[in-house]
Design brief:
By secondary structure, this protein is mainly alpha-helical. It has three domains: 75 residues, no CATH class; 168 residues, no CATH class; 122 residues, no CATH class. The chain has a three-stranded antiparallel sheet with strand order 1-2-3, with helices on one face. α6 packs antiparallel against α7. The radius of gyration is 38 Å and the shape is elongated.
């Protein structure tokens, strides 16, 4: 359909039609009677009386409409046919392209993002430029997505709530709150052991009753499991049901029968377990030897630094994981003593009430009379001249390994 056969009315009228109606089909719809044609001509010329010239223009417009009637109706029929071809009969689903399937995996499943996070973490480790905070964040993302995959696989109630969000992948990583990466790792590993057993036992990925849960723990106890096996499974079940938004009346973790079995298992395992005792502390001779080693200028500076950190950990009762979270820029030595700050512990850090915790050792602390704390003054110079591309995180990790072996 076009504006042909209307050139007889004039180019000014054609310009008006293109401006107001844009396409001939809109003009066709607006033309029903000769009165409609006359009003269009009056609007185009801006006058109320057209005279004989107007009557001729009306006749030309109506002839144009009659000539366009068949092509226009054919076009309407074609549009209707094309529109109905896109509709699917009730109860059927539209065929999905490979691109649609790929986008569905990316948007709804945390498994794809989990692989990406793992590859990203591996590249950072290979580059040997990862800081402690970066490792914690990346590992937390990995274990959070692995637990999210467990929830999505079991299709717990929270799955539907997350899938309707604009960015489900980001939501999967946030539903675990501020829990530390090691907490998420322990929960995931404990549940994976039970899940593997459950798949072989019943072919399911989520228990439908207490029977498989109780049977699993009983088998582990018969095989000689550790004291923490039932409690680890209970903790994993609890967090998955809480995060998965399982209704309270359907939660196995709060079932009276399950709690009674857990208490009985704990009593039985405590009876046969070894008596808990604290690790042996360093002897006075060991601490004195470490002080002498720190002050020995003939020894390698790296080894002296390891001995110095072992003394710091001993006098401040720090765990190896706490040593890795010491902030190098906060190391200070004054007449009063040595001070530093911990970036993150089990009870402090981002997402906790306390962001950082202080560490302090009095300057006079020494068994040999040597001022072994003064080595902190060379830390920054040693970091620049000897470490080069190695990060503080890698140094403290290696210190932790030496610390454990000693």
């Amino acid at each position: 359909m076009d504006w042909k056969d209307l050139d007889q009315i004039g180019t000014r009228f054609i310009a008006y039609l293109e401006k107001v109606f844009r396409e001939p089909r809109f003009l066709f719809v607006a033309l029903e009677t000769e009165d409609d044609a006359q009003r269009i001509l009056q609007d185009a010329w801006g006058i109320s009386e057209l005279g004989a010239v107007g009557d001729e223009a009306v006749r030309i417009l109506m002839l144009w409409r009659d000539a366009m009637d068949v092509p226009f109706r054919r076009q309407i029929q074609l549009r209707c046919t094309n529109s109905f071809s896109l509709l699917q009969p009730p109860g059927t689903t539209a065929a999905r392209t490979l691109q649609d399937e790929f986008e569905n995996v990316v948007r709804q499943g945390p498994g794809f993002v989990l692989d990406m996070v793992k590859r990203q973490l591996k590249r950072k480790r290979d580059a040997k430029g990862t800081q402690r905070a970066d490792i914690e964040r990346d590992q937390r993302a990995v274990y959070a997505l692995q637990l999210a995959e467990v929830i999505r696989e079991a299709y717990l109630p929270v799955t539907h709530q997350i899938e309707v969000l604009d960015d489900p992948n980001k939501a999967w990583g946030r539903i675990f709150g501020s829990r530390r990466s090691k907490t998420l790792r322990n929960r995931y590993k404990a549940w994976q052991r039970f899940r593997s057993w459950l798949v072989a036992y019943s072919g399911e990925v989520w228990p439908k009753s207490l029977t498989p849960l109780i049977s699993f723990v009983e088998e582990r106890i018969d095989d000689g499991c550790s004291f923490t096996c039932p409690s680890e499974l209970h903790a994993s079940l609890t967090i998955l049901e809480q995060i998965g938004r399982v209704p309270d009346e359907k939660r196995f973790s709060s079932d009276t029968t399950w709690l009674s079995h857990s208490a009985s298992w704990k009593l039985e395992l405590e009876t046969h377990a070894r008596v808990d005792k604290a690790a042996k502390p360093y002897t006075v001779a060991i601490l004195a030897s470490l002080e002498i080693f720190v002050m020995d200028l003939q020894q390698d500076l790296y080894a002296r630094f390891i001995a110095w950190v072992m003394l710091i950990a001993s006098w401040t009762s720090l765990r190896v994981d706490d040593i890795q979270n010491l902030l190098p820029e906060t190391l200070r030595l004054s007449r009063r003593g040595f001070s530093a700050r911990l970036a993150r512990t089990k009870t402090s850090g981002p997402g906790k009430v306390h962001r950082q915790l202080p560490v302090f050792i009095q300057r006079e602390i020494s068994l040999t009379g040597h001022d072994w704390l003064q080595l902190v003054l060379a830390l920054h110079r040693w970091t620049v001249s000897f470490i080069r591309g190695t990060t503080w995180c890698h140094i403290t990790m290696s210190i932790g390994q030496h610390f454990f072996r000693s």
